[in-house]
TrEMBL record:
Lineage start: Bacteria, Bacillati, Bacillota, Bacilli, Bacillales
Family of this protein: Belongs to the UPF0210 family.
Listed CDD domains: RNR_PFL_like_DUF711
Pfam families: DUF711 (PF05167)
Subunit structure as annotated in this protein's UniProt entry: Homodimer.
Name by which UniProt lists this protein: UPF0210 protein J2Z22_002252
Length: 452
């Protein structure tokens, strides 16, 4: 049982250290909405989403007032549309995305995730229709987020899908070129995607989940930074213990909010995702944590080790605080959403290659990285393949959310706004990888995948 005393202990964290509940995400199954007729299907998913989530935003606002904890986003995730809409007689899933967007606006959530496909071993007809609909769908909607899982440690990497996603990302950038290619900020390509992730753009409601569930994502880079300032210069054991204790307290706040939201909505509690997700605000940065640890800038030698320490001890502290820690849980390293990361890129301390190395030990992967709009689709596919290989071999979730900004080149800035922040256009290795990407087929799973 969680007491209000535990929440009161975090008041200072909330007031001074940017602690917040980043999101309450309601997962909704659309499996019972299947239909061959597009209009009927769209009406069924609209009705189910608006009925299930009609009180979600109000409940979040009430909890904010009662506990004094900012709840930044209220979101919805749904069954991957390529599965739920698999029996549709239609050539395009764009109207489905529009129905999702309409439902999201009706209930007032910030984003709705699940315009997704799971193609780690191959594509069904529905998968391909959905993937080919992504550029248009993300151009004509405001709140819909999309994800595609192209690989897993169990099945390998679907290189046909990797090749296709390079083209889809570039087309999405072109369709939203008038808005600095922001469509790509709502699209993520996964390896080892999880079914209970409450964070966008990769959230979807997995087929192994309940009919409806509440997942909560808590974030507190500023809290961790302040705690580490108090043990500056101490040994690594002290450093690790401090991170664990801080993660424990932050997770308890999320547990309370999740349980109360679940009770008031009459929806089962799913998981707490304790992910240190930064914001563009000063003092709410993963890069600043590295500096407190003793690095001049993110990207300096030692950065990957520092990130490994942070990620591991956040997980350890969170697991002690809740029996239902899930999702991604750890540390995110998005560039545009972290002013310290942006500064490191501008100073030349942080490169795409160093970020890739860091993804070996962080919670996700290459996240919110702006690259030149002239980057080829094969190069984008190569970046996805590299990141998927890291996830496959290391049996962890990795992802790519990369934004080729049409009309902009290295050194220019792009402004996305809100939590998406702003970013410098980063250089990309210009050597050609088309001959590799064009091979097609599937990269087999690694030897350690055979566990039965």
């Amino acid at each position: 049982m969680i007491s209000l005393v535990e929440v009161q202990e975090t008041n200072k964290m909330i007031r001074e250290m940017n602690l917040d509940v980043r999101t309450i995400t309601m997962g909704i199954s659309l499996m019972d909405c299947s239909h061959t007729d597009l209009k009927v299907f769209n009406q069924k998913i609209y009705d189910k989403i608006t009925k299930s989530a009609e009180k979600l935003v109000k409940t979040g606002e009430d909890l904010e007032k009662q506990f004094g904890v900012p709840i930044v986003n209220k979101r919805i995730s749904v069954t991957p549309i390529s599965i739920a809409a698999g029996s549709l007689n239609t050539d395009s899933y764009v109207p489905v995305a529009e129905a999702l967007d309409k439902a999201a606006k009706e209930v007032g959530v910030n984003f709705i995730g699940g315009f997704s496909a799971l193609v780690q071993k191959g594509c069904t007809t529905g998968d391909r229709k959905l993937i080919e609909s992504i550029p248009e769908a993300l151009a004509v909607t405001e709140r819909v987020c999309s994800s595609v899982n192209v690989g897993s440690s169990r099945s390998g990497i679907n290189m046909d899908a990797v090749k296709l996603m390079g083209d889809i990302i570039l087309k999405t950038a072109e369709r939203t070129a008038d808005r600095d290619s922001i469509g790509c900020a709502k699209l993520v390509v996964f390896c080892n995607a999880v079914e209970d992730n409450p964070f966008m753009a990769g959230a979807f409601h997995g087929v192994g989940e309940r009919e409806c569930v509440i997942n909560v994502g808590v974030s507190g880079p500023g809290v961790v930074k302040r705690a580490l300032e108090e043990v500056k210069g101490k040994d690594f054991e002290t450093l690790c213990e401090t991170i664990k204790r801080t993660a424990f307290k932050v997770t308890r706040v999320g547990q309370l909010v999740a349980q109360e939201a679940s009770k008031r909505l009459g929806v089962p509690f799913g998981i707490i995702d304790l992910s240190l997700a930064p914001t563009p605000l000063i003092g709410d940065s993963i890069a600043e944590i590295f500096q407190v640890m003793g690095l001049e800038e993110a990207g300096a030698p030692g950065t990957t080790a520092a990130l490994a320490i942070l990620n591991d001890n956040v997980k350890k502290g969170g697991v002690m605080a809740s029996s239902y820690v899930g999702g991604l849980s750890g540390a995110f390293i998005p560039v545009s959403e972290d002013h310290g990361m942006i500064q490191a890129v501008q100073r030349g301390a942080l490169t795409l290659e160093k970020l890739e190395a860091m993804t070996c030990v962080c919670s996700v992967g290459l996240d919110m990285i702006a690259i030149p709009g002239s980057t080829s689709k094969e190069t984008i596919s190569g970046i996805i393949a590299d990141e998927a290989a890291i996830g496959m071999v290391n049996n962890k979730t990795t992802a790519v959310r990369i934004i080729p900004v049409i009309g902009k080149e290295v050194g220019e800035m792009v402004e996305f706004g809100g939590l998406l922040g702003y970013a410098p256009i980063m250089p990309v290795n210009s050597f050609n990888c088309a001959g590799f990407i064009d091979r097609g087929g599937r990269i087999p799973a690694p030897i350690h995948s055979f566990k039965n």
